[in-house]
Design brief:
elongated; about 50% helix; two-stranded parallel sheet; mainly alpha
Length: about 90
C-alpha cells in the first residue's frame, strides 16, 4: 500500500532481508492515473532509493480492459450475489 501498514519501506526491508532479487509492483488500481497508479509507483521507487539496493523491478501497465481482469471481477460479483441473503432488485 502507498500508505498504511506495512509501509512500502518496511516491506522493502523485509524483501531485502529475505534476499529477494525480483519484484513485480502491482498498484491496486486497474486504470492508469497520475493521482493513483503513478503516486503508488513513485512511492515504491522513492523507498527503494533509500534502501541502496537494486533488485530487478517491473511494474504492470494498466489492466482495466484485460479479459482476465474483467472475468475475475465478474466471478467476484457472481459469488457475492449468490451468497447474499437478500438479492437486489437490479444488479
Amino acid at each position: 500500500m502507498r500508505y498504511g501498514k506495512p509501509s512500502i519501506a518496511a516491506a522493502l526491508q523485509e524483501l531485502r532481508a529475505a534476499n529477494v532479487r525480483k519484484i513485480l509492483v502491482v498498484p491496486l488500481y486497474p486504470q492508469y492515473a497520475g493521482a493513483t497508479t503513478a503516486t503508488a509507483n513513485d512511492e515504491f521507487f522513492r523507498a527503494l532509493i533509500s534502501e541502496k539496493w537494486v533488485p530487478e523491478v517491473r511494474t504492470v501497465p494498466a489492466y482495466f480492459a484485460r479479459p482476465s481482469y474483467i472475468e475475475a471481477l465478474a466471478q467476484s460479483i457472481e459469488r457475492a450475489y449468490a451468497a447474499a441473503d437478500t438479492k437486489p432488485d437490479i444488479l
